[in-house]
Specification:
By secondary structure, the chain is an alpha/beta fold. The chain is built from 16 helices and nine strands. The structure holds coproporphyrinogen III.
Length: 332
């Protein structure tokens, strides 16, 4: 029995599935070793053999229930024609967004560029034990736009686009994201997680158009294809409740600012995932880390809950800390 799917889809609350966002990444020495030899990050994501090996690195170390395919949400803007580079300590850098070129993007070219990702999913699914889940993912349209038009460095840039243009970009992105999800699923992914990491900066009046609606369209597409979904609209606070009502995903990842007791009482008919603050894993002693882990496990004891964090593992986290958390949960 695949425990994570049983929890997510059948809402079985008696199992305790575990995985971590960013479980494959810079905090692992074996990842850093590969990364050092592969300076071009996008190229690394598109190296099916290495991407599959990296995906399985945390599975070899810890007793986890799921692997998440090694890729990046920015692989989609890349496949839609933008250059994407990662400069050390500076985060992602994308070449200038070209609206005309973007709107002309064709599905066949897009899917051809992403073919190595599907190949790495296929490879990984073959190597992964049957009872473990393979998670695929995408960035939600708003979060992709955040990087595509560089809202961080140029917040004024957003104002250059009319609401109408933004909606056209969102709709086009939604179509391509559904294609990407479908291909990932067809090649062996069991679940898709939709990361809306920057939903928290959307103003209240725009939340419906820029966050709820596009997430809902993607979830509805997935439901039609029987693809299980987990949404992560990070930073929207009490609006998580509205999100669940409107979007109706199978699972919802809460961020570290969401009070878990509030979540338990307000987020219904959904499998809850995550929540624990990743900063605790580096700033606290082992006793506090175990105490916080157990706080989440106890609060969500009688409802379907997938253990995870409230955001990705930070680069300076010790692998031994992850191991201790996993062992603690397994001992329940
Ligand atoms: O282990 C996994 O979770 C799978 C792989 C994965 C990566 N990125 C690899 C990665 C996943 C699921 C992502 C998702 C992702 N990427 C998100 C959503 C989750 C979140 O953190 O909010 C976002 C916003 C991105 C965009 C992105 N990619 C940023 C902002 C950065 C640079 C800063 C950072 O957090 O690392 C990346 C680079 C990136 N993606 C790395 C990895 C392992 C580090 C690349 C390096 O080695 O330099």
């Amino acid at each position: 029995m695949n425990e994570m799917l049983d929890c997510l889809m059948n809402k079985n609350s008696s199992c305790n599935p575990i995985w971590f966002m960013r479980q494959a990444g810079r905090y692992l020495p074996e990842f850093r070793k590969i990364r050092k030899k592969n300076q071009d990050f996008i190229k690394l994501c598109l190296n099916s053999n290495l991407a599959s090996d990296i995906t399985l690195q945390p599975i070899k170390r810890y007793d986890l229930d799921a692997a998440i395919i090694f890729s990046d949400i920015l692989i989609v803007p890349y496949a839609l024609g933008q250059k994407v580079t990662f400069v050390k300590n500076k985060g992602p850098m994308l070449s200038e967004f070209n609206m005309k070129k973007f709107l002309k993007s064709k599905p066949d070219i897009f899917l051809k560029k992403l073919k190595p990702i599907y190949k790495s999913i296929k490879k990984t699914r073959k190597k992964l034990e049957k009872n473990k889940t393979l998670i695929s993912f995408v960035g939600a349209p708003w979060t992709l736009i955040y990087y595509m038009i560089d809202i961080k460095k140029r917040p004024e840039h957003l104002k250059k686009f009319s609401k109408y243009d933004l909606e056209r970009i969102i709709n086009k992105l939604t179509q391509f994201l559904c294609l990407h999800i479908n291909q990932q699923f067809k090649n062996g992914a069991d679940v898709v997680q939709i990361f809306d990491s920057w939903a928290g900066i959307i103003s209240k009046k725009d939340l419906n158009r820029f966050c709820f609606e596009p997430n809902k369209k993607i979830v509805q597409f997935c439901r039609k294809k029987q693809i299980p979904t987990i949404c992560f609209p990070k930073g929207i606070g009490k609006n998580y409740k509205k999100f669940i009502k409107k979007v109706k995903p199978d699972g919802i990842n809460i961020d570290y600012k969401v009070n878990p007791i509030w979540a338990k009482n307000n987020l219904k008919n959904v499998c809850i995932q995550g929540g624990l603050d990743p900063k605790i894993l580096i700033n606290s002693n082992q006793k506090k880390i175990i105490k916080e882990t157990m706080r989440y496990m106890k609060i969500f004891k009688n409802i379907p809950y997938i253990f995870n964090l409230g955001h990705g593992i930070l680069p300076n986290t010790k692998p031994s800390t992850i191991e201790k958390i996993v062992k603690q949960i397994r001992s329940i």
